[in-house]
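Ticket reopened. Same input as before:
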Amino acid sequence: MKNGTAPLTLRIEQLSKTYRKGRGDAVEALKSFSLELQAGEIFGLLGPNGAGKTTLVKTLLGIVRPTSGRAFILDHPVGSVKARQHIGYLPENHRFPGHLSGEQLMRIFGELSGVSGKKLDARIDELLELVELREWRATAIRKYSKGMQQRLGLAQALISKPQLLFLDEPTDGIDPVGRKRIRDVLIHARDQGTTIFLNSHLLSEVELLTDRVAILNKGTVVAAGTTEELTATPNVYTLEFDPAQADAINGLEGVKHMDSSSGTLELLAESVGVLNQRIDTLRQHQVLLKAVRPKRNTLEQLFFDVIEQQ
Amino acid sequence: MRRFSAILRETLLEVLSNKVLIGFFVIAGLGLLAMIIAINMPDTSAKIARLQPTPDFPDSAALETFVREWFSISVGFLFYNSFLIVATIITAGLVPSMMRKGVIDLYLSKPISRTQLLFGKVLGGLIIVLACIIFFVGGVWLIFGLKTGVWDPAPLASMFPIMVSFIGMYGILVFIGVTSESPFLGIIIVFLLAGLVSATLANRETTLYGLVPSDIGHTVIDLLYVIMPQTSESAEIAGDIMYGKTVTNYFPMIQASFTGLLFFSLAAFSFKRKEF
Ligand SMILES: Nc1ncnc2c1ncn2[C@@H]1O[C@H](COP(=O)(O)OP(=O)(O)OP(=O)(O)O)[C@@H](O)[C@H]1O
Ligand SMILES: [Mg+2]
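Engineering reply: fixed in the latest deploy. New output:
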């Protein structure tokens, strides 16, 4: 601990993982990954298939060993039993023992996570209620639909009130209503102080939830920052105007793109001064402006941009 | 400890949902029922009455021999080998099913050491197997005790060699389970070792010595005999114990315990190092 402050929830230092596929063939799944997460953050790790997202999470849980580098969960080295005391995990494509009922599973995994007795009873009730599986608690898991299994997986990951929650593609294969439910559960957990580490390739999903993201491609981080930072496009502004006046705008300097049917245009302006000069020009031509705002990329656009650059 | 008991309980629930185990209990239960009917047939009842010790002949040896003969047929002949096959099939899937993709990740993310995790699975299997043995052997013992009044501990003690020979096979099964993640490979190899290989090695003077005529060859074959499971020898021990004979050679038991321990340790070592 530095200066008596609370330890970082997650600290990753130059973590690398190379898989050997036998006979000298090696896959560098993760290259020198570093990250620090504070309590209460929601972090999203994005990347195409095979980027190394699952590899990173598995390394943090001690399921695979890093080839080099170090990582700590609340100052406990990853891979140690202590580091796993404070975490919850929803693996990608998880499978539960189908012969167990939802409640049996929660009980066994709760005890495995170190919760027991009345506390566990209460926690099971609370979580099954939260993920809307109360009526199904006594039913064998093999009879659950995919969405129900996913919600049970989430409840299971939250059983010990973990300080850090790892979710690997939690909304994969789930319909929009189900995804919303899962998002609500995650926001609820975050509000209770849980730090969330989210792996996903559903970009709009991540955009709705996360404070900070990194984009991973072929094991390397190609972009990182807050969602705001990454989606901002400096010096580009979106203007909305009356579509009937589109002709009046023709010839304006700095127009990157205009959609006259919807009445929007993208305007390049090197400074706020330049932006206002251009607005003045438009006003002189009697153009009625409805809105002026800095342009934002979607994460999806950013994602394509950085992956293509590679 | 609580974590360990959770994994143990999960394993017991898993085995109890196994159809082969349910089949075993049904068949063993029917076997016991058949035995109750058989010893209550008029002829057998009369024979038991005749063998009962009287004030004139207080010796119960004849009756004990009668009970031991029944034991040697039901437990020694019918139960012993078929149960080892059933027990292998019931327990073979435990470790591989825990190691399936998507399942193992859940277990490994819990704050429990890998050694405890594996040990919980292994112990769960052993407990179920012991329960099966107690159910059948204890059942036979109870049926005859109630009918004849002979409460002879010797046949009951035959549970011990059955359990020990199973432990030897189970060690190999768990090790193959951890390394190959396949229940079937384990079953095949254990059957081959305990059946074919062990029988061939037991009769090595007539079978293998001829193939490798050198002294060194014979020594190697002898060594193999010593380290491989000695199935039929273990069965003989069970038989001797049942009959109340003194067992002259306990080596197959020591051998099975050693094999079990060795392969459990190898399995734990390999599980600890494995990546998923
Ligand atoms: N056990 C393994 N042995 C060898 N190579 C592996 C192993 N696990 C993963 N890899 C390789 O490592 C790379 C990263 O895989 P990983 O599963 O971490 O990707 P991902 O980002 O999670 O992808 P997805 O979005 O498809 O889940 C891939 O090239 C994959 O083939
Ligand atoms: Mg993945």
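Chain B has a mean pLDDT of 90. Residues A 19, 21, 27, 29, 47, 49-55, 92, 201 surround adenosine-5'-triphosphate (ligand 1) (CB under 6 Å). Please confirm and we'll close it.
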